Amino acid sequence: MNAAAQAMYEQLRTKLGRVLPDFELRRKAELAVEIEEWKRRRNAVILAHNYMEPALFYSVSDFRGDSLDLSRKAATTDRDVIVFCGVRFMAETAKILNPSKTVLIPSPRAGCSLAESITAEDIRQLRTRFPGIPVVSYINTYAEVKAESDLCCTSSNAAAVVESLHAPTVIFVPDRYLAMNVARETGRHIIFPSRTPVQDPENLLDVQMIGWDGRCEVHERFTVEDIQNARRQFPDVVVLAHPECKPEVVAAADFSGSTNAMIRYVAEHPAPRYLLLTECAMGDNVAAAHPDRELVRLCSIRCPHMNEITMEDTLEALRQMRYEVDVPEPIRSRARRAVERMLTIG
User: Fold this and answer.
1) Alpha-carbon gap, residue 326 to 323, rounded angstroms
2) Cβ(72)–Cβ(271) under 8 Å?
3) How many CA atoms within 13 Å lie on the side-chain side of 53?
4) Which residues have a Cβ under 8 Å from the Cβ of 50 and sit 6 or more positions away?
5) Among 13, 128, 211, 300, which lies 20 to 30 A Cα-Cα from 28?
């Protein structure tokens, strides 16, 4: 191990020695040094979502955060290359906002169950069925869906985005549970037309939100029973749930928010222990950031798509400039309007 790799290993051991075995830290340190060298050669920036594995998250990433945070970073970077360590819709958003940059994703298999649950044609059909009603699409959608939408949102600003429209009825896609949680937060009655036939779409009566039946394959698996079992063993545990969880799970938790909001909550609210109901790699990252906090491990649920992003593939993406993400015109410019409206709301 050369001096640079040794220094990186020491850095990772200090941060992750309680999380990862030593032999893995040594291997990851060597990879990190190579990635840093190629990052310099390519004039690249690495954006890492909060769900990235700890060694990647804490070594080579220039910016870390949730979808909203990283969208802003992608829009303003002056580097030639953006390597997005996240799933494809996130990389597409980077290209939408900064089209002159080369955007790479380390693995072409990094998809998203939510993004794949709806298409642009689905949005067009909703607009035909419910004319004149604005469409809010969750950031977890592909560019063609964003292009058909009036406005995008993330889990951190979904309620604010819906309220900003000042519309009596809003179409909200594609996450069923996020839509239900936003409806409850904003005091709106929601229907899902795929399950509840609407006889007269021009007279929606007391319907203020129209949802879609997409789900996150990770968050939909958490249950109220999981929370009850944790509280039974750890009565003082503070439970944090992502808003993509089922409404009954969110209601049973102590706090619900985006990944960034959950991270801030742990930092700002000292408690005996925490349970994070979200993708389990984030639990490792939070544990590494707060060695004085105890996290109850419910870490059987790893996003298979986020798990596709490895340090090895990140290195090869930079070496070979492979898996470039492009968004063709006019889809990009139409999608950009919806994303930029989201960014102005914050």
Assistant:
1) 10
2) no
3) 19
4) 57, 64, 65, 66, 259, 260, 263, 282, 285
5) 300
Residues 70-108: tens digit of each pLDDT = 989 999 999 999 999 999 999 999 999 999 999 999 999
pTM over 0.70: yes
Say yes or no to pLDDT of 194 above 80. no
Copy the structure tokens of residue 213: 């039946």
3-state secondary structure of 61: coil
Contact of 123 with 141, CB cutoff 8 Å: no
Q: Residue 39, Cβ neighbours under 10 Å: how many? A: 20
Q: What share of the chain is helix, strand, coil (3-state, %, to 5)?
A: 45, 15, 40
Tokens of 225: 């029973």
Q: Which residues contact 274 (CB under 8 A, 6 or more apart)?
A: 237, 238, 239, 240, 266, 286, 293, 294, 295, 296
Q: Nearest Cα to 324, choosing from 96, 20, 107?
A: 107
- How many beta carbons lie within 10 A of that of residue 69, not counting itself? 19
Q: Which residue has the higher pLDDT, 149 or 287?
A: 149
Read off the tokens for 38.
């190629």
Judged against a pLDDT cut of 60, whether residue 63 lies above it is answered with yes
The owner of tokens 């229907």 is 191
Domains in the chain, start-ordered, CATH in brackets? Answer: 3-111+306-320 (3.40.50.10800), 115-216 (3.40.50.10800), 219-295 (3.40.50.10800)
